[in-house]
Amino acid sequence: MECKTENFKQEYKKEMRAVQDSMDVLHGKWKIAVLSSICYYNKRRFSDILSDIDGISNRMLSKELKELEFNKLIHRNVLSTQPVTVEYTLTEHGNTLKTIINNLHEWGVEHRKKIVEG
Amino acid sequence: MECKTENFKQEYKKEMRAVQDSMDVLHGKWKIAVLSSICYYNKRRFSDILSDIDGISNRMLSKELKELEFNKLIHRNVLSTQPVTVEYTLTEHGNTLKTIINNLHEWGVEHRKKIVEG
DNA sequence: CAGGATCCTATACGATACTG
DNA sequence: CAGTATCGTATAGGATCCTG
């Protein structure tokens, strides 16, 4: 971290792009909450997630699920019942987000302490 | 993870709130980029950060810096030069975000591979 | 049940110009 | 240099109702 050369700046920009890639996938008000809901229960249905997350509307849940599926973080499994049952699960790729979610959780706890105490 | 009791659901909601706390602090298009810029260079000035981050406007940089300072992630140090020099540094608390930023970086790299390849 | 369609508002963000 | 002020647009997100 001592050498602030042009090369260093290039590396920094490359890192930034990667971080932005992650944020592009995780952006929005509910994405992490949706992932967490599915992650905690392993398998979760639309109406379940709707009740897990306080305040989310079906419109937004639908939208977030689509984006997560597009980014291959979750899998949408349609069972041919009457009426249809839809189960959402994390993909392997989605599972790799657990570390980040856990870190966000731990950091959030510490942050709350800092802000309330300080 | 096997016991989906009411207690389990309470725990889950508590975790969600902590994760949301983190996201509330990190939300917005530029917050992580700003933190990273300061983090990489240890000490960084307004115009420096402006040139570090492609596309950010001075209005947004100003806004993001204020929010980060409000949340005690960065420190604003004014030197009485002519004209004034302002240096931004990470607080100790801000430094604890390094883990998350690194994780986002690593995950972003992997994600890009997955999406481009798949 | 699992969403889609429609309408509406708030705010996030960008561009530009200006100031001590 | 380190911002602020002003204006305008785009998007995110909420509320409600509808459907196979």
Automatic annotation (TrEMBL), chains A, B:
It comes from Chryseobacterium zhengzhouense. Signal peptide: none annotated. The keyword Phosphoprotein does not apply. InterPro entries: HTH_HxlR, WH-like_DNA-bd_sf, WH_DNA-bd_sf. Residues 3-116 form the HTH hxlR-type domain. This is Winged helix-turn-helix transcriptional regulator. Keywords: DNA-binding, Transcription, Transcription regulation. It comes from the Bacteria. PROSITE patterns: HTH_HXLR.
